[in-house]
Every structure is written in structure tokens, then in C-alpha cells.
Amino acid sequence: MGPSTDGRSDDQSSGELPPQLDGLPLIGSTLDLARDPIAFLDRVAEQGDVVRYEIGGLPFTGVLHPEYVEQLLVTESESVRKLRLGDVNSAGNEFAPEGVLFTEGEQWRNQRIVLQNVFTPDRIERYGTTMTNVAARRVESWDDGAKLAINRRFSVLTLSILAKTLFDLTIEDRGSVITAVASALNEQADSSSFSTYLPAWIPTPARRRYDRAVSEFETTIHAVIEERRSDDAQSLSDRDDLLSLLLATETQNGYRHSESELQDQLLTFLFAGHEATSLALTYTVLLVAQHPAVASRLHKEWTDVLGDSDPTAGDVAALAYTDHVVRESLRLYPPAFAVFRTATEDISLGDYVIPEETNVTIPQFRVHRDPRWWDDPEAFDPDRWEESSERPEYAYFPFGGGPRHCIGMRFAMMELKLLLPTILRRVEFELLSDPDPALAPQATLQPAEDVRTRVRTRPSLR
Ligand code: HEM
């Protein structure tokens, strides 16, 4: 059912509980979710806009109407907190608990202000040159005819860009600790792996790998922080990377990151920043490879706007069709396929009430494909973004919404719009694997198998 239009009751306890998804007794829906998370979300959506189920013995409610999405993320965001992986899987607690992705209250607000002060639109624009240079160098190292798994290649690419913009490190330098921590984290959050739901004290191989990778990462980052701290104030402020900026401005902002906050912040940015962007790039390239008409319009726009040159941050605003292609790709394949919250008080959603301590799943993946808001929802149609539409604002929220929306949204959108022409004007990708890949949501919306391609180099631009 949809939201009630006759105003909501102030008496939070007066609503009824949402309908319950049929699950197996005792273990609730845990196995269904583990087997096929996407099919599980489909089942939830079939049952209504607010649906109860149980995972690992904990109460969950799926929320699928844009009006309720807005209520939970924006207008009543004070009535929820972030759901930590560790609330479901006690081992997950270890992921950057002091980073801005998971902190709450005063600590979160302070961190968010400091980060917004350094992660300004101006600064992000200045990262544009790094983005195109790093991408151009990598693509030019690929041989004509080479077979590449683009999801893996793009993951290293976006990681290199972040290593440079966050720490001023090259990945060749100390990058392997970064790659190791990224893949251990994804493995750790894999909802299809049963070990995710085992108590933390059971030392599975995945957990041992995770613990080792995080501890090596912390040692490296600690060393980098020490190196930067030994720089004088002038050379720190001459640097443009996020770490130096945080160190240089921390006292002026009146909030000083502790050592562990700083480490967690960098781990958070690396993780939140590279995997989602790399997936967005992978799915966009996959879609463009299957739609030659879209590819030719992109190339035409790039010739018209850029001539023979690589794009700069200043060109991005003029790349309107590229923007529509990226938006449409983020609609069909939102890398953050769902956001999660826990109710800190009873919340009324239309006629239903979600009791305090219920966990809430808000799946972009389903809402973005809901035929009530999208004509022909499964079709890749960048033109649907050409005109404004009547659809509710929160029918589309690839970057979340409200106070905890993605702090890297501008960075990611600019990166995608710079990388597409930089890559696709140098090489073409011939798809070798399934054009409609099976999906395996982990912490992000991963393809179940590598997206394999053959690379064809294009005639040089200049
Ligand atoms: C296409 C790429 C990206 C997508 C789809 C994406 C998506 C999201 C979403 C949906 C959230 C909200 C999570 C929630 O409400 O629970 C979020 C938060 C966040 N994102 Fe991104 N993101 C992307 C790129 C980036 C980049 C490039 C960075 C950093 C450079 C970044 C850093 C963060 C951080 C730090 C948060 C937590 C903000 C807070 O809680 O205050 N993201 N992202």
C-alpha cells in the first residue's frame, strides 16, 4: 500500500505492524537472503511498501515507497541511527567505527563539518587533473586485443585515484595494503556467505584475512601520518591531499581528529570512495558497449565539447548527455544497492508503525526499478533524464539523502564524467561475458562474475 494522504497520527503507537514476509521458522529469512539477495528484495517488494522480516534473529523492515524513504532519510532522520554491520554480524563492528560513515551524534557532526571544510567543491575540481592523468596512463598501458576483467581494472584505477587524492601516495608505492584491505572488506560484508552471520569469536579464514589486512593498513597509514606530521605547516598546506588538509586545518576547525579517528576516516574514504565509483564505471561501460547508438552520441558530445583534448573539471558542466548516461547507469545499477538504519523510537509510516530498534532496509535497487515511477523500468534509456519529471524526489537516491547523504557525491560524479571520455576515446571494449550479468550484492552491488572484455585501441586523439 502507498502512503496515507490524510496526515499522520501523532500517536506513534496507534498504527499496526507492517505485514510480515513469510520466512522459515526460527531462522527467519536469513537463508533466503544469503541465497539470492536480489530475489529476496523482489519478494519483499511484491508484498508492499512496508514489509517486516527477520535476519539473523533481528527484526527488519523493508521500505519501498519514495515518500517513506524521504521520511526516514530526511524529514525524520533524527528518529534513526545508522545500522552497523556489527549489529548483524558482530565482526563487522571492526570496520572504521570512528570514521564518518558510522559515527553518530556530536562526533559525527563535528567530523562532517571538518570534512566538508576540506572537501570543498573547489578542491574537488582541483583533483580533476589527477583523475584524467591517472586514467590516461593506465589505459595507455593496455595492449590492443588484450583480454581484461574491467571490474578489476577499474577497481585498481579508482583506488589509485583515491590513494593520490587522499594521501598523495601512488599505488605502486604502498598500494598493495590498500588493495588487500579493500578486498578483505568486501569479503567480510558478503551477505551471501553464511560465515557473515556467525559470531565474531569463530575465526573463519575470511575474518583472519580481514584482521591481517586491516592491521597492515593501519601500520602503513600510521607511518604516512607520522611522515606528514613531521612536515612543517607550510609544506603541509602546500599539499592538496585530504590527509595533509585534515592535519593542516584540524586546529583551526576547533575539532581535532584523534589518531584512531584519523585512521578510520582515511579507511572510510578509501573504502566508501573507490569500490562504488569503480562499479559505477564498470556498469556504465557495460551498458554503453551494448548500446551503439548511445556510444555514438557520447562520442559526438565529446568531439563537440572537448575537440581533441582530454576533459578538465571545467568541461564537466557542458557534458549533458554524458551526465544522463551516468545517471541512468546509477539508476539501473546503484553501487550502494540499499541503505540501512535502525529506529531509535517508534516511527509511523502511513498506517503502519515500526517499533523502536527495528532495522530498516531501504533498497535503491528496487525503488529505482519500480514501474510506478519509471516507464519501462528495466530499459537503459539515458533520454529519460532530458526532461524534468513528476516522479517523487526519492524515487532516485543513488547517493542516499538527508544529512548523511554521500559526502563524495560531487567527487564521484565528476570522476565518472571525466573518466568516461578519457577511457572510451582511447579504447573500445568488446564484451566477452554475459551482457546481463548476475549480481552478487556484498557491501556494494558486485557482479557475480568478472565482466570480461577484449580491448581495442582507438586511433590516437591527437
Ligand atoms: C558512484 C559512487 C558513490 C556512490 C553510489 C556512493 C553512495 C553513497 C551512499 C548511498 C551513501 C549514504 C549511505 C547511508 O545513508 O547509509 C554514501 C555515504 C558516504 N560516502 Fe559515498 N558513494 C560514492 C562515492 C563516494 C566517494 C568518491 C567518496 C569519498 C571520496 C564517498 C564517501 C562517502 C562517505 C564518507 C559517506 C558517509 C557520509 C556520512 O555518513 O556522513 N562516497 N555514499
TrEMBL record:
Record carries keyword Iron: yes
Keyword hit for Metal-binding: yes
Signal peptide: none
Record key words, sorted: Heme, Iron, Metal-binding, Monooxygenase, Oxidoreductase
Top-level taxon of origin: Archaea
One Gene Ontology molecular-function label: heme binding
Similarity comment: family membership: Belongs to the cytochrome P450 family.
Family annotation (PANTHER family): BIFUNCTIONAL ALBAFLAVENONE MONOOXYGENASE_TERPENE SYNTHASE, CYTOCHROME P450 FAMILY 4
Protein name stated in the entry: Cytochrome P450
Record organism: Halocatena pleomorpha
